[in-house]
């Protein structure tokens, strides 16, 4: 039943269908050109870069970040030209956030062919091509130039993706196909969405001068000017936003002026430090142990794969976004440097219900990536046995890029950054806000550090800090078993996951996990828990069980930190006491709530911290500097840490819409 999940025939429409005319792309879907046939690069420079005055605006930035949103990514020519200009004239500590929407991404072959036409951009286009993969529908953030340039691609119809974007935009590039051929890219509702994300002085430009476009932009609050167009085009439009500004909680800040303290040196803390340092903030990371990653994040191996269920929930979206984010992060840091074993992971269907869900996933997953190894495939037991190297009796999903993370090496790689200072052996016992709106960290009665922003990333111990004590996190004990490999077991080539997981032999050991027990403080290894792990192994592969069940040599105990809805908590905290005292109503405006300005939490990662914590770190870092969010607003709301207290107050609806654009 070999089934490449990603390419049912109906999904092929997701790609751009091109004809080529004189080596220039032409859309078969829209019967239109991607850019001027006179000179696409010069058109980009004239219409988008010059008319948004980007050279002067980039040069005048002082270590802030600049956000551009484009409608219609196409070949990426506008993005690459903007990046080139940015490199030439933006100050070193500043960041460029380029967001672009695209319903029909080009295939990698078409993109490569289209970009080969522009030799002056080769340094940039090669890097884009290198990361151009895994485009499932939704948000995809790629980072370049030591993370100073990010490209967030919103794959899907602009009418669905743009309303989910949280961003404070400085310039718009309107680059759909001609309005007569592509009216949905020029609709009044799209221009309203633009207005919501604009501030006074936000500019826009477009190649078209269509009267309907001009009027609709004016109706949305933009001042519009008609000017001579590029090449043979008589006129084009440019302008700026002058309408009323929606109060947004995406407030841009100058990262260079800001300091951050991160409490906790597990994957949540180290990845938070990394994401914030990459945005130019000065970070101090505080860890109570002598070593980073020595509690839950200190297992010798962490499995990275998205455990998909086929349900359209925020959790499923988070799993997929988290998976792609962690994979891209490991790629940026280097697989070798982090000792990431991309050995592949098999997610076995342990019963008929799971098998049916995998089949549904196969039918519905709309992955546009069929020129690469697909993100995952549904395979039968024989096919999986061949890949795994051992006999399996269940069907399942195979994730070829997934694998095992060396947790210590990843922690090391994440904090090796000139903007990060690590303080181990330091226990944060109290957080205090000063009269000047900065935050102090105290260890008993000693002041340890002070900063503008604090990220609480200390898992279950967040309960001991007054500002996060209301976030309900449950410790769940987990015991891993280490098994001595043998000739038979060394045939296992991939990680197997069912209700538990087992790794291929690594330095002569297999890692088998894991138990789940609540209300359990026992730090010692328990024989009965090893037994329970072996039972999990038996359900995944009797062959491996037979060869390994007498081979347990050691193990490890640690505690996960779990929320009631299995989603992590990531975002800014509210003052829970003040919230309760003020008794807000369901229709309260989010900005009127008692926010703890500069205080964030990244915790509650349960059994999947390596899947979810780095993405949550990026979400928080983007919020701190006012950069576009890497995930849709519905996911941000599902993760916001105040949801539990708000639900208790009967504010479920408000909690679901707390994060606005
Ligand atoms: C047995 C087991 C197997 C697992 N397998 C996987 C897997 O295969 N893949 C996967 O993705 N996830 C796995 N997980 C889950 C994963 O390990 C966790 O989700 C993740 O490690 C949580 O990271 P964290 O940084 O939030 O917490 P932690 O790693 O616990 O880090 C919190 C840190 O904060 C420090 N700290 C606490 N309080 C303070 C304070 N007051 N001051 C200073 N420092 C403080 C602690 O010392 C600790 O280092 C597993 C978990 C267990 C228990
Ligand atoms: C003129 S091309 C963009 C050219 C591009 N800016 C470049 O630099 O190559 C217009 C793009 O808009 C995309 N598009 C058209 N309709 C769309 C929609 N409804 N939502 C998102 N993208 C759309 C097309 O697939 C196409 O790639």
Provide the CATH architecture of the largest domain.
Answer: 3-Layer(aba) Sandwich
Number of helices: 20
Helix content: 25-40%
CATH topology of the largest domain: Rossmann fold
Description:
The protein has 661 residues and is α/β, with parallel strands linked by helices. The protein folds into 3 domains: 34-241, Vaccinia Virus protein VP39 (Rossmann fold); 256-294 and 409-473 and 565-656, FAD/NAD(P)-binding domain, CATH 3.50.50; 343-403 and 474-562, D-Amino Acid Oxidase, Chain A, domain 2. It has 20 helices and 32 strands. The strands form 6 sheets. Strands 1, 16, 17, 18, 25, 26, 27, 28, 29 and 30 form a 10-stranded mixed β-sheet that branches. Strands 7-8-6-5-9-10-12-11 form an 8-stranded mixed β-sheet, sandwiched between helices. Strands 20-14-13-24-32-31 form a 6-stranded mixed β-sheet. Helix 14 packs antiparallel against helix 15. The longest helix is centred in the middle third of the chain and has 20 residues, at 314-333. It is globular and about 80 Å long. 51% of the residues are buried. Mean pLDDT is 93; it is low at 1-13 and 368-372. Residues 263-269, 286-289, 294-297, 299, 302-303, 427-428, 457-459, 461, 478, 480, 513-514, 558, 560-561, 603, 605-611, 613 line the site of flavin-adenine dinucleotide.
């Amino acid at each position: 039943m070999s089934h490449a999940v990603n390419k049912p025939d109906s999904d092929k429409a997701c790609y751009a269908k091109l004809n080529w005319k004189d080596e220039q792309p032409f859309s078969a879907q829209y019967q239109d050109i991607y850019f001027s046939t006179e000179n696409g690069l010069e058109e980009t420079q004239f219409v988008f870069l010059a008319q948004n005055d980007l050279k002067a605006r980039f040069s005048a930035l002082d270590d802030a970040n600049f956000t551009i949103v484009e409608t219609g990514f196409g070949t990426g020519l506008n993005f690459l030209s903007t990046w080139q200009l940015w490199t030439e004239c933006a100050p070193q500590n500043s960041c460029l956030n380029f967001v672009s929407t695209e319903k029909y991404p080009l295939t990698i072959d078409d993109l490569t062919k289209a970009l080969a036409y522009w030799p002056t951009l080769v340094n940039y286009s090669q890097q884009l091509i290198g990361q151009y993969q895994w485009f499932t529908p939704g948000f995809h953030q790629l980072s370049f130039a030591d993370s100073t340039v990010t490209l967030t691609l919103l794959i899907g119809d602009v009418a669905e993706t743009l309303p989910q974007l949280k961003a404070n935009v400085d310039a718009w590039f309107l680059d759909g196909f001609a309005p007569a051929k592509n009216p949905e890219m020029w609709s009044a509702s799209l221009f309203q969405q633009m207005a919501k994300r604009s501030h006074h002085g936000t500019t826009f430009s477009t190649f078209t001068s269509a009267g309907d476009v001009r009027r609709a932009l004016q109706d949305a609050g933009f001042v519009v000017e008609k000017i001579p167009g590029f090449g043979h085009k008589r006129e084009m439009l440019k302008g700026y936003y002058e309408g009323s500004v929606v109060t947004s909680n995406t407030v841009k800040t100058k990262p260079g002026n800001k300091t951050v303290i991160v409490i906790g040196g597990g994957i949540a803390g180290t990845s938070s430090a990394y994401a914030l340092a990459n945005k130019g903030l000065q970070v101090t990371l505080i860890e109570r142990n002598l070593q980073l990653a020595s509690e839950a994040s200190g297992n010798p191996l962490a499995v990275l794969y998205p455990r998909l269920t086929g349900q359209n929930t925020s959790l499923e979206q988070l799993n997929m976004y988290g998976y792609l984010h962690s994979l891209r992060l490991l790629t940026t840091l280097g697989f070798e440097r982090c000792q990431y074993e991309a050995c592949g992971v098999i997610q076995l269907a342990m019963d008929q219900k799971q098998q049916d869900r995998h089949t549904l996933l196969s039918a519905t997953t709309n992955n546009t990536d069929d020129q690469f190894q697909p993100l995952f495939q549904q395979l039968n037991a024989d096919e999986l046995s061949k890949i795994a190297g051992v006999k399996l009796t269940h069907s399942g999903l195979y994730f070829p890029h997934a694998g095992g993370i060396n947790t210590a090496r990843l922690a090391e790689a994440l904090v090796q950054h000139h903007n990060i200072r690590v303080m181990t052996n330091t226990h944060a016992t109290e957080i205090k806000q000063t009269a000047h709106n900065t935050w102090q960290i105290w260890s008993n009665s000693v002041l340890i550090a002070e900063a503008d922003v604090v990220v609480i990333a200390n898992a279950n111990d967040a309960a001991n800090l007054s500002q996060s004590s209301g976030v309900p996190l449950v410790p769940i004990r987990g015991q891993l078993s280490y098994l001595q490999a043998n000739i038979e077991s060394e045939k296992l080539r991939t990680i197997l996951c069912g209700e538990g997981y087992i790794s291929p032999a690594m330095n002569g050991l297999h890692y088998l996990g894991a138990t789940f027990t609540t209300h359990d403080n026992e730090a010692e290894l328990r024989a009965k828990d090893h037994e329970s792990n072996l039972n999990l192994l038996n359900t995944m592969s009797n062959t491996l069980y037979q060869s390994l069940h007498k081979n347990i040599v050691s193990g490890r105990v640690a505690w996960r930190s779990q929320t009631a809805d299995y989603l992590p908590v990531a975002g800014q905290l509210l003052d829970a006491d003040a919230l309760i005292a003020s008794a807000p109503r369901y229709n309260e405006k989010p900005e009127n709530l008692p926010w703890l300005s500069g205080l964030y939490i990244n915790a509650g990662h349960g059994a999947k911290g390596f899947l979810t914590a780095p993405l949550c770190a990026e979400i928080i870092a983007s919020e701190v500097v006012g950069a576009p969010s890497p995930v849709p607003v519905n996911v941000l709301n599902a993760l916001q840490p105040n949801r539990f207290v708000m639900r208790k107050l009967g504010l479920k609806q408000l909690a679901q819409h707390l994060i606005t654009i």
